[in-house]
Write a structure and sequence with these properties.
Largest sheet: none
Number of helices: 6
Helix content: 55-70%
Number of strands: 0
Strand content: under 5%
Shape: globular
């Protein structure tokens, strides 16, 4: 079984719903875990400073579900392990939110934005290119940023 899935959502439909989240804890080796840790440090630290830990935890779980479900929908399994989908969603949120809500601080440097874009493009180079997870992550993060910005304007 790859990433906790055998064939699509077979295990999940049998009640093993944790399999929607567990691929974020799997890594293909030390380097994968190391770089996931770096991304989380650079992205999650400012994210958590702006929001309560409970909100961040819910965001991470929701991003994991969205990106893993998308990967299964595109490819029938989750071949991408680790937190990259979650990191992409947090990046998208931190990048989009200040553009929609001027009161929200700019937390993503140009250098970090270029690095995220480069890593994403490199990820597309696989065979077949695994574009479902990053696209879902960016869309999810941007959508939550838009909803949070709209809620902030109403206050």
């Amino acid at each position: 079984s790859t990433g906790g899935y055998r064939h699509g959502f077979e295990d999940v439909l049998r009640g093993q719903v944790w399999r929607l989240v567990t691929p974020i804890a799997l890594h293909d080796g030390f380097l994968g875990a190391f770089f996931d840790g770096l991304w989380l440090f650079y992205l999650c630290t400012p994210f958590e400073r702006m929001h309560r830990s409970r909100w961040v935890a819910l965001f991470v779980l929701a991003a994991a579900v969205v990106t893993n479900v998308t990967e299964v929908a595109f490819f029938g399994n989750v071949a991408i392990h680790g937190m990259m989908g979650v990191s992409d969603a947090i990046f998208a949120y931190l990048f989009v939110r200040p553009r929609l809500d001027p009161r929200y601080p700019e937390l993503v440097s140009t250098t970090l934005a270029i690095l995220v874009a480069a890593v994403t493009v490199i990820g597309f180079a696989g065979s077949p290119p695994r574009i479902g997870q990053p696209l879902a992550a960016f869309a999810f993060g941007a959508l939550i940023a838009a909803l949070a910005s709209a809620a902030a304007r109403r206050r």
